[in-house]
Structure formats: C-alpha cells, structure tokens
Write a structure and sequence with these properties.
By secondary structure, this protein is α/β, with parallel strands linked by helices. The protein has a domain of 225 residues: Vaccinia Virus protein VP39 (Rossmann fold), CATH 3.40.50. Helices cover 29% and strands 11% of the residues. The protein contains 13 helices and ten strands. The strands form two sheets. Strands 1, 2, 3, 4, 5, 6, 7 and 8 form an eight-stranded mixed beta sheet that branches. The protein has a two-stranded antiparallel ribbon with strand order 9-10. The radius of gyration is 21 Å and the shape is elongated. The termini are far apart.
Length: 372
Amino acid sequence: MPLAEVLEGNGFTYDDLRYVRSRELVWDGPPANDLTEFKRRPNDIPVVSFFTGCGGMDLGFEAAGFSHVAAFEFNELFCKTLRKNRPDWNVFGPPVHSGDVSKVGEVTDALSRLISSPFEGVFIGGPPCQPFSIAANQRFAKWGDKFKRTGFSHETNGGLLFDYVEIIRSFKPSVFIIENVPGLRDIDDGAQLSEAMQALRAAGYSLETPTVLDAADYEIPQQRLRLFVVGNRRGKQFVYPRASLRRIGAGAVLSDRAPNAANNETRRHNAGSIVRYMRLDYGSRDQLGRVDRLNPAIPSKTVIAGGSGGGGRSHLHPEIPRTLSVRECARLQSFPDDYVFAGPTARQFTQVGNAVPPVLAARMASQVAKLF
C-alpha cells in the first residue's frame, strides 16, 4: 500500500513525519523582508517590463511605487499567472499577442500606442537565461551535445539580449535594467555583453559596471545570484542597494504552511524516499534524488527552476522529510502568500525558480527612483 494511503488511513500527513535528528537547529532571528516593507506611495514613474515571467521584477517595482504600463511575456501560462494576480496590468502575450520580444517590430508597434520616445520612465527585462546558465548544464552529461553553454549562438534565446537593446534604443527610456544570471557576463569572455553595452553607450546612456547581487545580502532567506546592468540618460550615477549586515535563515519563512494559501500541495513520496531523507543531517544531500535538506539557520540554497520540459526539483524541508511545496519555494523567493501561480505543479516550480525575488527587485527599484 502506498505510504500516502497508510498515512491518511491513520489520520496523518507527510507533515507529521520527522528526521532522525530534528529540531536541533532553529531560526530565532528577525523575520525576512517582504514587500510590505516598501512604501507604496505612487511616484508617477512608469515602468515597462520585457521577458516578464511570473512577475518578480514587476512586483518589486510596484511595491516601490512605480506605475505599471505594460508587460511582454511570450509564455501563455506565465501570462495566465500575471493576469490572474494583476488583472489591471497590460499584459502582452498569448492568446491576444505573441509577447515575443524577438519580434521587435510587433513589440514596438504595440508599445508605441502606450508610450512615446523618448520615454520618461524605466524598462526592465531579463532575456531568458538558459543559454548562459551553469545550473542548466549540470543536467546534461559532459560528453553530450547539450553540455556546452551555447550563449549567444543559442538558436532561440541567444539573440534576445540584442533584441531588447534594439527596443531600448528605439524608445530611449530614462533608465533601463538588464537582469540575468552571472554567466551572461562571462560567456564568450564577455565580448557579447560588451558589444551590447557599447551600443547602449552610443545611444547616449551612462552605464554602471555589470554587478552581481546575492539575494541573501538583502534579507531574503535564499542564496541567489543575479547579474544587473543599469543604464540611464539622466546624467546621474546609479548606486546599487547597500547589502545588509545580517542574513536571514530559511526557517524564517518555513516554520508554518500558510494553510489557506494556494500552491501548497506537496509531493506524495514513497516510503523508500522518506526513509532515506529521514537519515539526512542539515545541509546534507540525498544522492539518489539529488535533493538537499535545508538548514533553517542560514539562507536556503538557490530555488531551482528546472528545464524547459519540466519543473525541476525542490529542496527538502529543514524539519519535515519531504520536498518543499511551490508556496514554500515562493516564500524563499519573497513572493507574498496571496500571489497565485497558474498551471500544473511542475510549471509552477518553473515560474517561481525563474523569477527575480520581488524584494530584491524592490531594492533595485528604490535606488532607480533616486535618479528621477
């Protein structure tokens, strides 16, 4: 009989299970930062997003008081998430629009109906990062054709950075942000990113040095590295948000299940997996399942998006021998509990794992606002 049925038949759930060594470490520090920490007073600065995903960057700018003008996203499921949570946003994507930034003319035509050039606002966007991701390569055997980071030669995503650059040059926003994984800075020894930055400088932008920020440095309970390139034509210097002196443990957001929140389902593991998980110490990995037990007293390891065909794997809860739910991963990412992710569970994990933590985006947005 499956373990799930045994548990249910005896009035238990997976959350009643425990590790052999349990409750030895706890998070007894301050709570994690969330979007309520930011002032929501409108600042009248408009923002347009590209490659919006499920809206992590957009939520951060919204919390910092920016006015949302439009979002471009080509994945129909991600668009469903955006429209479900923010029905008042202008979401350009399936089924009413392609949302495809590689179709520059189509995007330009749609956006021209909403804004003019020069645009006295902000463009934000993170071209799909799979071609530049080290984590993506780790899913493939080193002798396989898919292992090499193809970068800008990737037939689908490699040129999207330059499509975004072309749109920036066309509308001349006051400020733009390019966001990506750190690998964008290193691919081709930096030649392609340098070419993009040179084109933007030629268009009149002052650019800051590409900088990698770790979400854990901003009181988010997760280690997550993201690369940011910021340019502006306002004659000012952008200053990146100052890192905090304290780090927040994963236990700060994993101590309860938010029972009334959506996306809270957990995987129905078999008995063999549970027995293996139960023997793990904090921070240890189950080699068969390639999942790690989190330490509640330190930031979580990076939430994983998974590949284009599925939802990847989540980490193990620090005190319950099971993998995390989508909602728990979203908490590690700093999404609010009332933000709902559409689609099958595997694709919900993809949306959460691909996102910029909204609190990190809000930190960046607060700094951007100082340029105006």
